[in-house]
Amino acid sequence: MDVFDAFRAEPWFFVGTVLVIGMMVGSFLNVVIHRLPKMMESDWRQQCMEFLHPEEAGKAAETPQPRYNLFVPRSACPGCGHRISAIENVPVASYMFLRGKCSACKVSISIRYPIVEMLTGLASAYAAWRFGVTGTTAFAILYIWALVALTFIDADTTLLPDDITLPLLWLGLLVNLGGMFTDARSAVVGAVAGYLILWAVYWGFKLLTGKEGMGYGDFKLLAAIGAWLGWQMLPLVILLSAVVGTIVGIAGILLQGRERGAKLPFGPYLAAAGFIALFWGQRLNLWYLGRIPT
Questions:
Q1: Which class for 157: exposed (0-12), middle (13-18), buried (19 or more C-beta within 10 A)?
Q2: Which of 42, 48, 189, 200 is the most buried (most CB within 10 A)?
Q3: DSSP code string of 44-65
Q4: Three-class SS string for 88-114?
Q5: What is the DSSP letter of 83?
Q6: Whose CA is closest to 118, among 90, 137, 99, 142?
Q7: Cβ distance 22 to 123 under 8 Å?
Q8: pLDDT tens per residue, the chain (294 residues)?
Q9: In sequence order, what are the residues at sequence separation of 6 or more whose Cβ sits closer than 8 angstroms to the Cβ of residue 244?
Q10: How far is the C-alpha of 220 from the C-alpha of 266, rounded, in Å?
C-alpha cells in the first residue's frame, strides 16, 4: 500500500496531513507577504537609478550587497534582531508557547502571523476534504495559497505583484486544458473578460471623476480567477467582492473611524470572492438564477 492508498483508506489522515502542510506553507507565506514588496521596491529603485544616474548605478553594482530574498537572511525579530530558531518557527504552536512575544526582547509579535498560518492550513484542509485524494486538490491548494499571499500583500501595500498574479493566470489556463475546474474555452474567455471588465470600470471611473479607482493588478487578479473558474463565475465574483468590500468599508467607518474617502485595496475582496466561488460558486449561481422570474 502506497501513501495515496493510505490517504484514500483514511480520509481524515489525508485532511490532517494537508492541514499541517498548509500551516507550514502559511509560515512561508508570511515571509512572502513581508519580503516580496520590499524586493520589488529594491528592484524599482535600482531600475530608476540605472535610468537616471547610470554612472552611480554602475558604482553601486560593484559594491557587494547583502543577499535579501525569500530564503536569505533567516527570519529575525524586527525589534532586537534575534534570529528565529527552528523551534520558534513552528506554525501557530510557537506563537502560543511564546505567548505572542519575542523570546529575547519580549516585544509583541503580530497576531497576523498565526492567523495567516491557520487560514492557509484550514483552507487547504477544506480543499482536501472537498476534492479528496486527487489532482484537483493539489491545484486548488495552489490557487488558495496564491490568493492568501495576494490578500495580505495588497492589504499592506495596495500592490498585487505580477510575480504571483501572472503565474496564477497562466497556470489556471493550463490546468483547464484538461477541464479540471471548467472547460478550456470558458477559461480563456474568463481570463480575457476578467481583465477587460475591470479595465472598462477603471477607465469609466477615471473619465467621470478624473481619479483612479483601482490598479492594474486588480485586472490581472480577476483575469486569473476567470482563467481558473471560467467566465460563468465572473458576475458572482464581482458581486461578492462588492458586497464584502462594502461590509468591510462600513465596518471600518463605524468601528475604526476610517474616513469615507479613504482608499481601500480591492484585491482582498476579489480573493475572498474567488475562494467562495471555487467551492460554492456553482451552487450560488444556480440559487441566484433560480430566483430570477421567468
A1: middle
A2: 189
A3: HHHHHHHHH-HHHHHHHHHS--
A4: HHCCCHHHHHCCCECCCCCCECCCHHH
A5: B
A6: 90
A7: yes
A8: 578 788 888 889 999 999 999 999 999 999 999 999 999 988 888 888 777 777 776 666 667 777 888 888 888 877 787 888 888 888 888 888 888 888 888 888 889 999 999 999 999 999 999 999 999 999 999 999 999 999 999 999 999 999 999 999 999 999 999 999 999 999 999 999 999 999 998 899 888 888 877 889 999 999 999 999 999 999 999 999 988 887 877 776 666 666 655 567 899 999 999 999 999 998 988 886 666 554
A9: 269, 272, 273
A10: 12
Closest to 158 (Cα-Cα) out of 264, 236, 287: 264
Dist. CA 39–CA 76, nearest whole Å: 17
Residues 6+ apart with CB under 8 A from 56: 49
Query: Largest alpha-carbon pair distance within the chain?
Result: 71
d(CA 251, CA 186): 36
Instruction: Give the cell for residue 89.
Output: 518557527
Structure-block grid coordinates of residue 247: 461590509
pTM of the entire predicted model? 0.90
Q: Which H or E run includes 163?
A: helix 162-175
217 close to 268: Cβ distance less than 8 angstroms: no
